[in-house]
Design brief:
two-stranded antiparallel sheet, binds heme C
C-alpha cells in the first residue's frame, strides 16, 4: 500500500475512534463492570436515552457526582432511567424542569411503583409509622394509617407526642430526633418514609445497606448502642477483619454464607441467607420489646425467636444458640426486676404527692430515665448481640450506681417533706 493511502486510513481511523469516544461520553454509561454480572453493554432504547441522556448530559455539568453514582447502580444496568424515579406519581406535584416534568419531592412512593414487596414489608415494621409516632405522636397520620399501624403495633402509633421532645423544642426535634425518626415520616402523597436511609439515592446499593455503619447512622449512642455492641462482638471483630474478602453486593435472592461468612446487622435482621427469605420488616425476627423500661414478650414471641434462630443456625449449631438465648433472656428477666423495684419507688413518690405531675422537671426523674433508658436497655441489647462490656460496665454496674443514687434522692425528698 502506498504511504499516502496508509496515512489517510490512519487519520480517518483515528478520527472515527475519537468521534466514537466523544459520542459515547455524551450518553450515560450503563453499568459498572467492576460490579460483575449482570453487567450489560447493550444499547439503551430511545426513551431511556431521552429520559436519562438529556438529564445526564446537563447534570454532568451541574451535579457530576449524581450522574456518576447513578452510573454505578444496578438501575443503570437494568435501564431504569432518571425520569423513572423522578417523575411524579399519584399525589405528588409536578414541576417543569428543562423540558421535562419532574416530581417536587421524591418519597418511598417513587420506589414503591417497582418495589411493592419491599415497601409493603417496610410498612409493617417499626421503621414505618411507629418510628415517627415515637417523637410526634399520631397527629400527622390519616385515620387509615393509624388503623394500619395499630394493627401491627398496638398502642405504638395512636399515642401522644413525646414529652421530652416537646420540652427540648422544635429546632432540637428537627435536627435531632427527626433526623433518625424520619425513617417513618408520613409524606404528602400518602406514602410513608423514604428508602434512601439504607440504600442512598443514586447508588441504590445493597452492599451499602449491609454495612453496619449504615444502620449505625441511627442505631448508636447510649440509648441504643447497637453499633458499638456489634463492633465489640466476635461478629464485628471478624467482619472488620474479613470485609474486604466478603461479597457484600451479592444478589439478595442468592445470598449465601460463602458471600458473607460473618453476619452484619442486615444479615440477622433482614437478609435471606442461604435460602431464607429477605424481609424489610425489621420487626419480624424479634421476640421482646427490649427498648421498653420493662421488656415484655411481643405478641409474635415464638415466631420471632424461631425466625432469628434460623438465621443463627445457618452458621451455628442448635445447642450453643439455645444456650445463648437462655442466658440473654435471663438478663432481660433480671433487668426487668431491677427496674421494677425503682419504678415502684417513683410511683410511691407520685402517689404521695411528692413529685409534680409534669415530666422532666425534677432531677430524680432524669436519674430514673437514665437508669432504664440508657443502662437497662444497654444491658439487654448487649446480652442479645454479644457485647459483654455493655451488659456489665455500661449496663449492670451503672444500674446499681443509679439505683443507689435514686434511693438516696427519694429518701431526701421524703425527709424534706416530713420536715415540712
Ligand atoms: C439543561 C440542563 C438540565 C437538564 C436537561 C436537566 N436538569 Fe435538572 N437541574 C439543572 C440545574 C441547573 C439544576 C439546579 C442545580 C442547583 O440548584 O445548583 C437542576 C436541579 C435538579 C434537581 C434538584 C431540584 C431541587 O431544587 O431540589 C433535580 C431532582 C433534577 N435537576 C433532576 C433532573 C432530571 C431527572 C432531569 C431529566 C428528566 C433533569 N434534571 C434535566 C439542569 C438540568
Ligand atoms: C432510583 C431512583 C433514582 C434515579 C434512577 C435517579 N434519581 Fe435522582 N434522586 C433520587 C432521590 C430519591 C432523590 C432525593 C430527592 C428528594 O429528597 O426529594 C434524588 C435527588 C436528585 C437530585 C438532587 C440532589 C441534591 O442533593 O440536591 C438531582 C440533581 C438528581 N436526583 C438527578 C438525577 C439524575 C440526573 C439522574 C439520572 C442520571 C437521577 N437523578 C436518577 C432518586 C433517583
Ligand atoms: C422503574 C422501576 C424502578 C424504580 C422506580 C426503582 N427501581 Fe430499584 N430496581 C429496579 C430494577 C429493574 C432493579 C433490578 C432488579 C433485579 O435485577 O432483580 C432494581 C434494583 C434495586 C435494588 C437492588 C440493587 C442490587 O444491588 O441488587 C435496590 C436496593 C433498589 N432497586 C432500590 C430502589 C430505590 C431505593 C428506589 C427509589 C428511590 C428504586 N429502587 C426505584 C427498578 C426500579
Ligand atoms: C434513619 C435512621 C435509621 C436507620 C438508617 C436504621 N434504623 Fe432501625 N430504627 C430506627 C428507629 C427510629 C427505630 C425505632 C422505631 C420505634 O420503635 O419507634 C428503629 C428500629 C429498628 C429495629 C427494632 C424494630 C422493632 O420492632 O422494635 C430494628 C431491628 C432495626 N431498627 C434494625 C435496623 C437495621 C438492621 C438497619 C440497617 C440495615 C437499620 N435499622 C437502619 C431508625 C433507623
Ligand atoms: C441517633 C438517632 C436517634 C435520635 C437522634 C433519636 N432517636 Fe429515638 N430511637 C432511635 C433508634 C435507633 C431507636 C430504636 C431503639 C431500639 O429499638 O432499640 C429509637 C427509639 C426511640 C423510642 C422507643 C421506641 C418507641 O417507639 O417508643 C422513643 C420513644 C424515641 N426513640 C424517641 C426519641 C425522641 C423523642 C428523640 C429526640 C428527643 C429521639 N428519639 C432521638 C434513634 C434515634
Ligand atoms: C433499614 C434499611 C433499609 C431500608 C429502610 C430499606 N432497605 Fe431495601 N434492603 C436493605 C437491605 C439490608 C437489603 C439486602 C438484604 C440482604 O442482605 O439480602 C435490601 C434489599 C433491597 C432490594 C433487593 C431485594 C431483592 O430481593 O433483590 C430492593 C429492591 C430494596 N431493598 C428496595 C427497598 C425499598 C423500595 C425501600 C423503601 C420502601 C427499602 N429498600 C428500604 C435495607 C433497607
Ligand atoms: C448475630 C445476629 C445479630 C446481629 C449481627 C445484630 N443483631 Fe440486633 N438483635 C439480634 C437479636 C437476637 C436481638 C434480640 C431479638 C429478640 O428480641 O428476640 C436483636 C435486637 C436488636 C434490636 C432491638 C429491638 C428492641 O426490641 O429494642 C435492634 C434495634 C437491633 N437488634 C439492631 C441491630 C443493629 C443496628 C445491628 C448492627 C449494628 C445489629 N442489630 C446486629 C441479633 C443481631
Ligand atoms: C453468617 C454466619 C453467622 C451467623 C448468621 C451468626 N453467626 Fe455467630 N459467629 C459466626 C462466626 C464466623 C463466629 C466466630 C467463630 C470463631 O471464633 O471462629 C461467630 C461467633 C459467635 C459467638 C461467639 C462464640 C465464641 O465462643 O466466641 C456467638 C455467641 C455467636 N456467634 C452467636 C450467634 C447468634 C446468637 C446468632 C444469631 C442471632 C449468630 N451468631 C449468627 C458466624 C455467624
Amino acid at each position: 500500500m502506498p504511504f499516502k493511502a496508509v496515512f489517510i486510513s490512519v487519520v480517518i481511523g483515528s478520527a472515527l475512534i475519537v468521534a466514537a469516544f466523544m459520542l459515547n461520553a455524551r450518553r450515560p454509561g450503563i453499568g459498572n463492570p467492576s460490579l460483575g454480572p449482570p453487567f450489560l453493554a447493550g444499547q439503551p432504547n430511545a426513551s431511556f436515552v431521552r429520559a436519562t441522556g438529556k438529564c445526564a448530559e446537563c447534570h454532568r455539568q451541574e451535579t457530576a457526582a449524581v450522574v456518576h453514582q447513578y452510573e454505578m447502580s444496578v438501575h443503570a444496568v437494568k435501564g431504569v432511567s432518571c425520569l423513572d424515579c423522578h417523575q411524579a406519581v399519584e399525589g405528588q406535584t409536578e414541576i417543569a424542569h428543562s423540558g421535562f416534568l419532574i416530581a417536587g419531592q421524591l418519597t418511598a412512593a417513587n420506589c414503591k411503583s417497582c418495589h411493592t414487596t419491599e415497601y409493603q414489608q417496610y410498612l409493617r415494621s417499626r421503621h414505618a409509622a411507629p418510628a415517627w409516632a415515637a417523637v410526634s405522636g399520631s397527629q400527622d397520620f390519616t385515620v387509615e394509617q393509624i388503623a394500619f399501624g395499630e394493627k401491627y403495633h398496638e398502642g405504638w402509633v395512636d399515642r401522644p407526642a413525646n414529652a421530652l421532645a416537646l420540652l427540648e423544642g422544635q429546632s432540637a426535634i428537627t435536627k435531632g430526633c427527626i433526623e433518625c425518626h424520619d425513617i417513618g415520616k408520613p409524606n404528602l402523597d400518602g406514602s410513608i418514609g423514604s428508602c434512601t436511609a439504607c440504600h442512598a439515592r443514586h447508588i441504590a446499593s445493597v452492599s451499602l445497606a449491609r454495612r453496619p455503619e449504615t444502620c449505625g447512622q441511627c442505631h448508636m449512642g447510649p440509648d441504643h448502642a447497637q453499633l458499638e455492641i456489634y463492633h465489640e462482638s466476635k461478629h464485628g471483630v471478624l467482619y472488620n477483619h474479613l470485609q474486604h474478602s466478603m461479597n457484600l453486593s451479592a444478589d439478595p435472592k442468592r445470598l449465601t454464607s460463602r458471600d458473607m461468612s460473618v453476619p452484619t446487622c442486615a444479615t440477622c435482621h433482614m437478609s435471606g441467607l442461604d435460602g431464607l427469605k429477605v424481609t424489610h420488616d425489621t420487626t419480624e425476627r424479634l421476640s421482646y420489646w427490649l427498648f421498653a423500661a420493662i421488656s415484655d414478650k411481643r405478641p409474635a414471641f415464638q415466631r420471632g425467636q424461631t425466625e432469628m434462630k434460623e438465621v443463627c443456625m445457618k452458621c451455628h449449631a442448635q445447642t450453643p444458640i439455645d444456650t445463648f438465648y437462655r442466658e440473654a433472656e435471663q438478663v432481660v428477666a433480671d433487668t426487668n426486676e431491677k427496674i421494677r423495684v425503682v419504678a415502684e419507688i417513683m410511683q410511691g413518690l407520685r402517689d404521695d404527692g411528692l413529685l409534680t405531675p409534669e415530666p422532666f422537671d425534677e432531677p430524680i426523674e432524669f436519674v430514673y430515665f437514665d437508669l432504664w433508658h440508657y443502662y437497662g436497655r444497654t444491658a439487654k441489647h448487649g446480652a442479645f448481640m454479644g457485647g459483654a462490656d455493655f451488659v456489665q460496665w455500661h449496663g449492670n454496674y451503672e444500674l446499681l450506681l443509679k439505683t443507689t443514687e435514686l434511693m438516696k434522692m427519694a429518701e431526701d425528698i421524703r425527709a424534706q417533706h416530713e420536715a415540712g
